[in-house]
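The records we work with from here on pair a chain with its fold. These numbers are not coordinates but entries in a learned vocabulary of local backbone shapes. To see the layout at work, look at the sequence and tokens printed below.

. . .
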Amino acid sequence: MRRSRGVNWEKWGWIYMRASGVVLIILIFGHLFVNLLVGDGIKAIDFAFVGGKWSDPFWQVWDLLMLWLAFIHGGNGMRTIVNDYATKPLTRKILLGAILVSVVAEIILGTLVIFTFDPCPAGSPADLLPSFCSTINQ
């Protein structure tokens, strides 16, 4: 039997799903622990909480890694389902294209939100801003 030379994408997809799943478990439980159990718990989660959290590069990278891994993991899972159940080649192509477009769009938009989020936009009414913005804007 001859073996084809080239990259076995299915094998690497399978490995990615296992590795990203383990890393996602750590990231998600860390996220839940910090957001729900530390400090005042769920009552403390508001616009100011997110603004304060995303002002720290550590949490930006943490959430970015969680975002990227989750969307690629989910997209790869959906790709596997489409490959298993879409019998017509045109249907398979359309569905795989839609998955690719949606995953790429969500990753781009999520990354932009994480790195361009401004909790203290200039010109906003002071009563609508988080408490830590008053010292920044003055």
Remarks:
- The chain has one domain: 9-137.
- The mean pLDDT is 88.
- The CA atoms of residues 125 and 134 lie 10 Å apart.
